[in-house]
Specification:
heterodimer, A: 170 residues, alpha+beta, OB fold (Dihydrolipoamide Acetyltransferase, E2P), 2 domains, two-stranded antiparallel sheet, 36% helix, B: 276 residues, mainly alpha, 13 helices
């Protein structure tokens, strides 16, 4: 779904929640006159269950789209092996193969990307621009952060993950 | 923020006083509250918990100043504030605060046991670990490495690890004693490799046809053996990885405290370079 220039994706979880509560409201309003009298506010709240995730996704996609040119400009291409605790806060570009992909259904995907030198977790806090699957060769732009914000191994907070055609650099 | 446990240093003494303060204040204030309550004075245990709250902040500070942060100790002030903010009756308050004081003491010992090694400067490499064995091999061939070279190696390695590749390359090309030929050839070549490759870091071009390498005669002093029939990309990476590992081991001889602590902090990176 496109809103302006922004490709907006709603997570399956948000859709499922909307569908479940819609069914519940319909059933309740069929059997209970008390519920029918509250439909005037129940129906808008029901639609908010889908509108709010769409709005949040739109806002985060726009923010990330604004960040991407800046990250493209600042990022240095590095081998995954060279990413370490000393680089926390640095903006990097890595190229590699997606070994693992999780939580895509939540619009908070987590990947494990590997090149010849090693593998690193890549976390994204919005939906990616493309549909990324295991074994895709990708270019990742992001910032090195700690896994648990103040502590943990270095991981990449991804701003952009795109499929490339070429073999990953090592 | 850096402190050490070297005996006698003001920073180390301050840390010891803070460590002693955690159980003393927590148990002390709670115990005083219990005594007054037993003696019949009206005591509100909600405010007696100020002792545990102060101790939790001190513990969090002790966790914060260590290079590796302990998130459990860092989060104790949250519970301290909850105790201070929530009204509670005397008996339950006394028990809860005594348990919390005990918990803070246990966390203090955990912090000292698990994280104290990083406070006392770089731990020596164990001779059984791969980096330790490599250090032994290197020192057998180069028993004395000047402090200036160790300091230069530390600076280059640290800046490279931090992703400041241009700065690292600049420092590597300004090797002290390089022009006079007083630097061992192996170390000089490591600096040259890093100077060259750091300058090209971030480029998406493939490995060039011509670049600084270790000679065949130097291979026996490198950490990793040369790959058989390497492709150009693999060989290019091989040269850099070995140069970095070599500089890390040389940097361990650096005597500047600040550089020592940074080198120790980057030990996980050095281990990753050797493939651990």
């Amino acid at each position: 779904m496109k809103i302006g220039n922004v490709d907006v994706k709603v997570s399956i979880l948000a859709i499922a929640v909307f569908v479940i509560f819609t069914i519940l409201v319909i059933i309740a309003s069929i059997y209970s006159p008390a519920v029918r009298s509250h439909l005037i506010w129940l129906v808008p709240v029901l639609f908010m269950l889908i509108i709010l995730p769409v709005a949040l996704n739109y806002m985060s996609q726009r923010q990330y789209a604004d960040l991407r040119p800046e990250y493209e400009r600042q990022a240095k291409t590095v081998r995954i092996k060279l990413i370490n605790e000393g680089m926390i806060g640095k903006i990097v570009r890595i190229e590699g193969v997606v070994e693992n992909a999780r939580f895509q259904f939540l619009n908070r995907p987590q990947y494990s990307v590997a090149d010849r030198s090693g593998a690193i977790p890549v976390k994204m806090f919005t939906s990616p621009e493309e549909d990324i699957k295991v074994n895709d060769i990708v270019e990742v732009l992001g910032q090195v952060i700690r896994r648990y914000i103040v502590t943990g191994d270095p991981i990449i907070n991804c701003v952009s993950i795109r499929k490339t055609e070429k073999k990953p650099e090592s | 923020m850096t402190t050490t446990e070297c005996t006698g240093s003001p920073g180390a003494r301050a840390v010891r006083y803070y460590e002693a303060a955690v159980p003393i204040i927590a148990f002390g204030v709670t115990g005083a509250g219990i005594l007054f309550w037993s003696a019949g004075y009206p005591v509100d245990f909600q405010y007696v918990s100020i002792g545990c709250t102060i101790s939790s902040f001190i513990l969090a500070y002790l966790a914060w100043i260590r290079p590796r942060k302990d998130i459990v100790a860092l989060s104790t002030p949250i519970y301290g504030i909850v105790f201070l903010a929530a009204p509670i009756e005397a008996a339950a308050g006394a028990v809860l605060q005594l348990l919390y004081a005990a918990g803070l003491t246990v966390l203090l010992f955990r912090l000292k046991h698990r994280f104290s090694g990083e406070m006392s400067g770089p731990a020596p490499l164990s001779p059984d670990e791969p980096l330790g064995k490599y250090q032994g091999r290197l020192l057998a061939d180069m028993p004395t490495i000047s402090p200036e070279i160790a300091r230069a190696a530390a600076r280059v390695f640290i800046r490279f690890a931090e992703g400041e590749y241009e700065e690292s390359g600049r420092l590597a090309s300004a090797l002290p004693g390089g022009a006079e030929g007083t630097v061992p050839a192996l170390i000089a070549q490591a600096f040259a490799i890093i100077s060259y490759q750091a300058g090209r870091m971030g480029e998406k071009e493939p490995a060039p046809d011509d670049y600084p390498t270790f000679s065949a005669a130097q291979h026996h002093l490198l950490f990793s053996p040369a790959p058989d029939n390497p492709d150009p990309e693999k060989d290019y990476s091989f040269q850099l990885d070995n140069a970095l590992i070599l500089l890390y081991v040389v940097a361990l001889g650096c005597t500047e405290k600040e550089l020592q602590l940074n080198i120790d902090r980057l030990r996980p990176f050095a281990r990753r370079l050797i493939g651990e």
